[in-house]
Specification:
This protein has 282 residues and is mainly α. It has a domain of 193 residues: f41 fragment of flagellin, N-terminal domain (Up-down Bundle), CATH 1.20.1330.10. The chain has 6 helices and 4 strands; from the N terminus they run αααββββααα. Strand 1 and strand 2 form a beta hairpin. The longest helix has 54 residues.
């Protein structure tokens, strides 16, 4: 190779290699400090696009799981109302039996009238229970039958299940709470009619609680599936977007050595031009 003053090819090549090594060293430092394999889109354009979609799906899955948890809380609150209503109806049935005692005096001023006072208070309590809400949302419908409410069970809202707003006050003989037939126990005959109505109401309430439990169980399994899907999405996204710390640490050590070597060789290449002066001086 000829010796020239204007051009130092060795120094130019050393400088180019040093610049490339320094760039890779900085990239490796960014990856290790951020934990991300893809620092900018140019690193893996296709992988970045897939990772973005997966990240969005992960966030939606988490939000869907939150919605299901809220639906579970709705059902648990509803079941609590059913449990309270069961106690109320059980006490009402007890009062209706006591009112049929032949040793009790009838009428508003008699013994059965005293039972009737508590009976009426419990009817009002059933009405209050039937008006219960969860976060401002009614738990029971005023329709003749239960109303289905849709709950989405996957992140893209293509799969759904239903929970029920029970027809609490309109189920068979639950109308006791609204002072209709079978709503008094101020006489032995009336108490007998009330007993049959209350037993029917308890049967309806038992069915509602069973439906509530089935719906809660269904949501529980849906949540398990969401959790599994979310874990799988996170694992898949991690393989695309997250840096392999062990491998990248090895690369960092390599780039460090190359940078130091490049710096040393650039200094040597710059010194090589000094040989021209020796020729001129000779």
């Amino acid at each position: 190779m000829s010796i020239s003053i204007n051009t130092n090819s060795s120094a130019s090549m050393a400088a180019s290699n040093l610049s490339a090594n320094n760039s890779m060293l900085q990239k490796s430092l960014q990856r290790l400090s951020s934990g991300a394999r893809i620092v900018d889109a140019a690193d893996d354009a296709g992988g970045l696009a897939v990772s973005m979609k997966m990240s969005a799906a992960i966030r939606r899955t988490g939000a869907t799981n939150t919605n299901l948890s809220n639906a579970q809380s709705f059902l648990k609150t509803q079941d609590g109302a059913f449990a309270a209503a069961t106690k109320v109806l059980t006490r009402m049935s007890e009062l209706s039996i006591l009112a049929q005692d032949v040793t009790k005096t009838s009428g508003a001023a008699g013994d059965t009238g005293n039972y009737q006072t508590e009976f009426k208070a419990l009817q009002a309590q059933l009405t209050d229970i039937g008006a219960g809400t969860f976060n401002g949302v009614t738990m029971f419908t005023t329709a003749a039958t239960a109303t289905a409410v849709n709950v989405y069970t996957n992140e893209d809202s293509t799969t759904q299940t239903t929970i029920s707003k029970a027809a609490f006050l309109n189920e068979t003989n639950m109308a006791l709470a609204m002072n209709t037939a079978g709503s008094t126990i101020d006489s032995s005959a009336a108490a007998k009619t009330a007993t049959a109505s209350i037993n029917s109401a308890l049967t309806s309430l038992a069915t509602m609680r069973a439906n509530n439990g089935a719906e809660s169980s269904k949501l529980g399994f849906a949540q398990e599936m969401l959790t599994t899907n979310k874990n799988n999405l996170e694992s898949a996204n991690s393989r695309i977007a997250d840096v392999d710390v062990a491998a990248e640490s090895t690369q960092l050590a390599r780039y460090n050595i190359l940078q130091q070597a490049g710096t040393a060789m650039l200094a040597q290449a710059n010194q090589s031009a000094q040989s021209v002066l020796k020729l001129l001086q000779g």
